[in-house]
Please model this.
Amino acid sequence: MEQKQQRKSSERVASIQTEYVRSLQKKETRKNARKVRLYRRLTVFAFAAAIILGGMTNMFINQKHALAAKELQKVETMAELEEVQEEKEILERQLVKLNDDDYIAKLARKEYFLSEKNEIIFSIPENKKKTDKKDDRKE
Model:
């Protein structure tokens, strides 16, 4: 009850409208307006900082995925390079062998059934039927 009475009494009291009081009220309203503007600026700044931070995080993640893909591609390319180098070495050895006349003669006799003078070649056909029968018996 006492509080109600104090409120009523304070409402009944008129404020003094002097120049000094008005200047204090203006200063107080300016101070409150500055606080409001400051909070608004801070909110806008925080929002902009959050957007920039989010964009940078997104960019970092995308670059990390791209880097991982490039690393995987590099590993695959290096494996392919090793295979090609091995094949190159094999072909170089074969090229050296092809410069040798004895090797060429041996290769021609083996693959094309060519012969030297006074040499007879016998061609023995592979018996697939016999090998098939042996496989059937084993099973």
